[in-house]
Amino acid sequence: MMIDIDSVSLSYGTQRERKEVLNNISFAIKPHSICAIIGPSGCGKSSLLFLLAGLRQPDSGKIVVKGNPRRGTILQNYGLFPWKTVAQNIGLGLTLQHMNKRQIAEKVTALIAEMGLTGFDKHFPSQLSGGMQQRVALARSLAIDPEILLMDEPLSSLDALTRERLQNLFLQVQKNKQITAVIVTHSIEEAVFLGNTIVVLSERPAKIVQIVDNPQAGDLSYRGQEHFYSRCNMLRNLLREDKNG
Ligand SMILES: Nc1ncnc2c1ncn2[C@@H]1O[C@H](COP(=O)(O)OP(=O)(O)OP(=O)(O)O)[C@@H](O)[C@H]1O
């Protein structure tokens, strides 16, 4: 296993006013696979991603990441710097690693082309559509050649077709570069299309409702298949049962 999440619990607040967010969460993520995390709004998905990114520590339990992989993270709202251009935003991680300027420029140019952003390198984020900003955020996290990519709603607020195009693009990159990815999503279809494993969380405090094995994920033709719809329905029922139950 690449990542082992073992009996993890987390709360916010003080002793007197504790808000329990994650309750005894355990699952494992295989190398080079995609794990989708889905659950009701506010249940604790982003908090779980924060723990995986090492930005926060659990109250109890542990998260073990094998080796010392390079981790790329895309937090909600893409985290782009508005005063930096597309090229500067994408090259940020490399600049921080003190890579030389020529190498950064080469890598950034290649990523800009890969993400279909050619001609926009000198633009600022505010001059781009939401979908383009999300591609910049994806390019920035890919620039450091992450072995693990952690993403919080990276494709939200896109129209359906742009979202599907970016999902396809992401799948191709993830396969080519053998990335282990975790994606937090509100979208049942996205979880089923991308997630080799789908972790279904309950209302807060989030417990595991089910861990769904989804071997067909990663196949670009999956969306059009009968089985895709039955998987989506199964997931919808799991989420609904939890809400009603
Ligand atoms: N730093 C914090 N301090 C206190 N409470 C917090 C903090 N961060 C998140 N919370 C609360 O913890 C709960 C879980 O938040 P989190 O963002 O993890 O949920 P989520 O499932 O990602 O939500 P959404 O689906 O709406 O993005 C929410 O009730 C939120 O208000």
Automatic annotation (TrEMBL):
Q: Which molecular function terms from Gene Ontology are attached?
A: ATP binding; ATP hydrolysis activity
Q: Which SMART domains does the record match to this protein?
A: AAA (SM00382)
- The answer, when asked if ATP-binding is one of the entry's keywords, is yes
- Top-rank taxon: Bacteria
InterPro entries tied to this protein: AAA+_ATPase, ABC_transporter-like_ATP-bd, ABC_transporter-like_CS, ABC_transporter_ATP-bind, P-loop_NTPase
CDD domains (UniProt xref) = ABC_NrtD_SsuB_transporters
PROSITE patterns for the chain: ABC_TRANSPORTER_1 (PS00211), ABC_TRANSPORTER_2 (PS50893)
Q: Where is the ABC transporter domain?
A: 3-228
In its keyword annotation, does this UniProt entry include Transport? yes
**Keywords in UniProt for this one?**
ATP-binding, Nucleotide-binding, Transport
Q: Know the name of this protein?
A: NitT/TauT family transport system ATP-binding protein
Organismal lineage: Bacteria, Pseudomonadati, Thermodesulfobacteriota, Desulfuromonadia, Desulfuromonadales
